[in-house]
Design goal:
It is a single chain. Helix content is about 40%, strand content about 20%. It has helices spanning about 1-5, 20-25, 60-80, 100-115; strands spanning about 30, 35-40, 50-55, 85-90. Strand 1 and strand 2 form a beta hairpin. The two termini are about 25 Å apart. The mean pLDDT is about 90.
Length: about 120
């Protein structure tokens, strides 16, 4: 039971409204990596939350965009308990589209560490 609560990805840990995204983008706190750009802002909810902004410029095919999103969500889900209470928006760079899951995960791990 405890496993589910710690590693789950419920709606309350996602950014769902446009105003939440605008607030994060206005904060100007960013971490730039080879494949991803992370923008974040502190929140008052006591837990870290994730938003995704994976555009068609990053990956032309929907299959590639969905694969990138799955990797990001999985990485966040596993690292969420170690992150401070912040809202994070993850954007990708075009180089991410042609990378395998392992490289994407490793790049994200480095960026989670830079935030936490």
């Amino acid at each position: 039971m405890e496993y589910r609560s710690v590693y789950a990805f419920p709606r309350c840990v996602r950014l769902t409204e446009a105003q939440e995204y605008k607030r994060v983008f206005a904060s100007r706190q960013k971490s730039k990596g080879r494949y991803f750009v992370l923008a974040w802002a502190p929140n008052q909810y006591g837990k870290s939350r994730l938003g995704l902004a994976i555009s068609r410029k990053c990956a032309r095919k929907a299959v590639a965009r969905q694969r990138i999103k799955r990797v990001i969500r999985e990485s966040f889900r596993l690292r969420r308990s170690g992150l401070p209470p912040i809202d994070i928006v993850v954007m990708c760079r075009p180089a991410a589209a042609c990378q395998d899951k392992k490289n994407l995960r490793e790049a994200l791990e480095k960026q989670w560490e830079s935030i936490g």
